[in-house]
Design brief:
Strand content: 15-25%
Shape: elongated
Radius of gyration: 33 Å
Distance between the termini: 14 Å
Helix content: 40-55%
Structural class: alpha/beta
Number of strands: 31
Oligomer: single chain
Number of helices: 36
Length: 903
């Protein structure tokens, strides 16, 4: 935090802050201050801090000192502008805008033109020389204030506006004359009085104070909370409020408003990107209600402002050393900067821009690594549409957020949510989206709009979420009331399949087949960097991955149970196998052999069953060790309850009952049913499984250890380099591990003697029970390595049955904010994580050379990887397709910790 912060101060002038005060001033306020410091043309104003918001949200009232501070800053602003807020003859007008630390586009509230009233609108008309502009500004204030501050249904204002345009036989609001807007103002005021139970306030200071409180309140609206959960933004930050003197883009053809990017946020390419709208205010661009022109057209519309904007964009990008997202207004030829921020971008753009900035000398490789993340890399690995496939093109819009999305057409958020929860994949189709559509946007595979551009609400939010989006497809006529879309005589009804390509902007009828991503082809060694766009992306990914691999400390292994998965994992950069689940080797045709083992009544029957399984297990391990030659392979001995290898109790009972009724009962079925009943457990995940099986069924673990040892000996005699590690599952006490290890050591010695090989097999255990974590120091006396099974550890720490709770009440827990994210998705650092940390410390205190890894699903979760780096694990293990993500995040974690150490 900057030293500029004063804990007693709730209001900062734009001249007082800087970009490092985002915690206090929010992103918008901090960046307005930074642009002011740079001498850029920013309208004067001041920022009310997030601390004031926190007090308001906690107590229900603004801090006592806030009103006086606002008054002092307002007086200063009035003196600077030479006019007073709301004065009749020449009113000062201000905007009241939200601005949290992290960008939340469209999720919180803004009110423009505060200070207009029945008395001051005439003064504005006189001073501006444009009566239509004054009344248009007044109707906008009443509309925004009514909806945002007084809670009036915004559709009522929209319907009145549409009726006014219909009466005049015009299609855009700019064609309404001053007289039409005067009538509209009267209608809007009646709507406010009818719906809000009070008149629209005529006192300018009352307008401002109520708007400030409304912005504070908007922090906790349902849509804002939903967006924060989606983006993992903490709920206790609060929002700042920015009060800024108004500049007007709706003063005629020499005025306008726009949004600009210093690089293309969709591709990362350098150039002139953005949207401009003449004779408009900012919300017209973001809302997408009028289609904009490309920013490049501004050069022919207003060359002076265009050249100035290009210079400012270069200044801001060099200053922030990143892609900047800029909002600006031109008021009668005068350019004003209303906002800048580090812009949201697509995954591909993030990788391209990071490497471009390195090449330009603006950032180094370590910073480039921090500019991308595993979630973005995962997006780049999604499939894309097959360009060779036969398709039916419906139209083309603006490629706003890349990806290949296929789903059933739906035309409102409610349906998107409902159908998605029923397992349907949907495409949300709207004329334009607004913040109320957020939940539907989250539920949909992709978003398609007929209006708006790359800076519209749909585009910005979709890019932030990594969701496929096509905007501004003007040829598509979207009829949300009749739930259909028409184009060129073709009608797409709700429920019809459509495909949208967020990389090209193309919209197709029906389902378009997909092909692997070029990034996946690169990881699999089937593609190399070249000249075209896909190869350029691959080259950027390659550079950043190479640096991540150089700096990371954590090694990355794969969860793989067969040679095919192992080879794929190795191509993806796996440095071994961290979890081979041997139970997967007992399925299919081998299930009958397991049944014989379970049904064995004598030692001879059991030994016969084990002897039949031994060569099959050995052959599996030979293949696995060959595919991972020279790299460690951790083999987990049989873990799940034995009943999982037997027929379903209900199906078997019915089969036996029917056979008995026909008097042709099968003796084997009868024995199986007895075994199923005998092995049935109320909670099998806490029953006879893991190490308990090895202790209760003589010879089971010995057979598996022998198969591993003989496979390793075979591989070694073939001049290979097998590096097998034997892992005992579900250990809760050191005594269990000691007994199993004693038997395993004996078997390994026998194999070494019989094969004439020296096998350096290590024996360790999974730490997946709270007791194991709490007694890790004792268990380390008998274990050469630990692998944290965080799936089971999470279940046992929380008392959750994963298969049940995720479907039953996790949604409610996420909605109520009990979870920010599922503890099965990202590790619970405070609970499960504290056990992992203490087990690491205790285990290494007993055995300093103890090897430590994790093989639960968390091993491939970006946030969890950083935690595992922090607590000192040696490796993470995850599914093959998540290996690149884990590699990248392991590199980011190392670079981040180096940066912290240097500071």
């Amino acid at each position: 935090m900057s030293e500029n912060k004063d804990p007693q101060k709730f209001v900062y002038d734009f001249t007082e802050g800087n970009k490092d005060l985002k915690d206090l001033l929010g992103g918008k306020g901090a960046n307005l201050a930074e642009m002011t410091n740079l001498g850029l043309p920013v309208p004067p104003g001041f920022t009310i801090t997030t601390e004031a918001c926190k007090v308001y949200l906690e107590s229900g009232d603004a801090p006592t000192a806030l009103r006086d501070e606002v008054s002092a800053h307002l007086t200063s602003l009035e003196e600077r502008m030479g006019k007073q807020l709301g004065q009749a003859d020449d009113p000062l007008l201000v905007s009241v805008r939200s601005g949290a630390k992290f960008s939340m586009p469209g999720m919180m509230d803004t009110v423009l033109n505060i200070g207009l009233s029945d008395a001051s609108v005439a003064g504005l008309a006189t001073q501006s020389g444009d009566e239509r502009f004054a009344w248009d500004s007044y109707r906008r204030l009443i509309q925004m204030f009514g909806k945002t501050v007084l809670g009036v249904d915004g559709e009522l204002f929209e319907e009145a506006l549409e009726a006014a345009k219909h009466a005049k036989k015009v299609t855009v609001d700019t064609d309404l004359a001053a007289a039409d807007l005067k009538k509209l103002v009267k209608q809007f005021k009646k709507i406010v009085e009818s719906e809000a139970g009070r008149e629209f306030p005529q006192d300018a200071r009352e307008q401002m104070d109520l708007a400030i409180n409304a912005v504070f309140d908007s922090w906790n609206t349902d849509r804002a909370k939903l967006y924060r959960r989606q983006e993992r933004i903490p709920g206790d930050l609060g929002t700042a409020v920015n009060v800024c003197s108004m500049v007007f883009g709706n003063l005629g053809p020499d005025s306008g408003t726009g949004v600009a990017f210093t690089r293309d946020p969709a591709s990362g390419h350098q150039g002139v990107y953005g949207d401009y709208l003449q004779n408009a205010q900012g919300e017209d661009v973001v809302a997408g209600i009028r289609n904009t022109v490309p920013l490049a057209d501004l050069e022919s519309i207003d060359k002076k402002s265009y050249d100035q904007l290009m210079q400012i964009m270069e200044t801001l990008e060099n200053h922030y050393k990143d892609l900047c997202d800029i909002e600006f207004t031109i008021e009668r030829g005068q350019l004003w900067m209303l906002q800048t921020r580090v812009g949201k971008r697509t995954a591909g753009a993030a990788f391209r821009i990071a490497t471009q900035l390195v090449d330009q000398g603006l950032i180094d490789e370590a910073e480039a690594l921090q500019r991308v993340n595993g979630a973005q890399l995962a997006q780049l690995m999604f499939p894309r549409f097959d360009v060779e496939a036969k398709t039916e093109l419906l139209g083309r819009g603006i490629a706003a957020s890349p990806g290949a999305a296929v789903g059933k057409a739906v035309f409102d958020s409610y349906t998107a949510i409902k159908w998605s929860r029923s397992g349907e994949k949907v495409i949300l189709i709207r004329r334009e989206t607004n913040p109320d559509d957020l939940e539907g946007m989250i539920a949909a595979e992709g978003i398609l709009t007929s209006r708006g551009g790359k800076t519209s609400h749909a585009a910005v939010v979709a890019r932030g979420m990594g969701k496929t989006c096509v905007c501004g497809a003007e040829d598509l006529e979207v009829d949300t009331k009749r739930r259909r879309m028409t184009v060129g005589g073709i009608v797409i009804e709700e429920g019809d399949l459509v495909s949208i390509d967020g990389s090209t902007g193309k919209v197709y009828r029906g389902e378009v087949p997909v092909v692997p991503s070029p990034v996946v082809e690169y990881f699999e060694g089937r593609m190399h960097a070249g000249a075209d766009d896909a190869d350029e992306l691959v080259a950027a990914v390659h550079r950043i991955m190479a640096y991540a691999d150089r700096v990371r400390r954590l090694r990355v292994r794969a969860n793989a149970d067969n040679a095919e998965d192992a080879l794929r994992a190795r191509r993806f950069g796996a440095q071994g196998i961290g979890l081979c689940r041997t139970e997967h080797m007992f399925l299919g045709e081998r299930r009958e052999m397991v049944e014989k083992l379970i049904l064995a009544d004598t030692d001879d029957e059991r030994e016969t069953a084990l002897a039949a399984l031994l060569p099959l297990q050995k052959a599996d391990f030979i293949e696995l060790f060959e595919s991972m030659d020279g790299l460690p392979v951790t083999v987990r001995l049989l873990d799940p309850p034995l009943h999982e290898f037997l027929p379903d109790i209900t199906e078997l009972s019915v089969r036996v009952a029917l056979a008995e009724s026909r008097k042709d009962a099968n003796e084997n079925d009868l024995r199986l049913l007895q075994a199923v009943h005998k092995l049935h457990e109320q909670n099998p995940m806490l029953g006879l499984r893991g190490v308990r099986l090895g202790l209760v069924i003589p010879g089971l673990f010995a057979m598996q250890v022998r198969a591993i040892a003989e496979a390793a000996a075979h591989r070694k005699n073939a001049k290979g380099d097998p590096r097998a590690e034997i892992m005992i599952p579900l250990v809760g006490t050191v005594q269990e591990l000691e007994i199993v290890r004693e038997e395993a050591d004996r078997v390994i010695e026998e194999v070494q003697a019989a094969t004439g090989t020296d096998l350096k097999l290590t024996i360790g255990t999974m730490i997946e029970l709270p007791r194991a974590a709490l007694t890790a120091g004792q268990i380390a006396e008998a274990a050469q390595f630990f692998s944290f099974g965080t799936n089971d550890l999470t279940q046992t720490v929380w008392g959750f049955s994963r298969d049940d709770v995720e479907a039953s009440f996790f949604t409610a827990y996420l909605e109520k904010g009990i979870f920010g994210v599922s503890p099965f998705e990202t590790i619970d650092k405070d609970g499960v994580g504290s056990l992992v940390r203490s087990a690491v410390e205790a285990g290494r205190a007993t055995r300093p050379d103890l090897k430590l890894g994790v093989c639960g699903e968390h091993g491939g979760d970006p946030e969890s990887v950083h935690f595992f780096h922090e607590v000192g694990l040696d490796y993470v293990s995850c599914s093959p397709f998540r290996i690149p993500v884990a590699r990248l995040e392991a590199g980011r974690a190392a670079a981040e910790s180096r940066g912290s150490d240097s500071r």
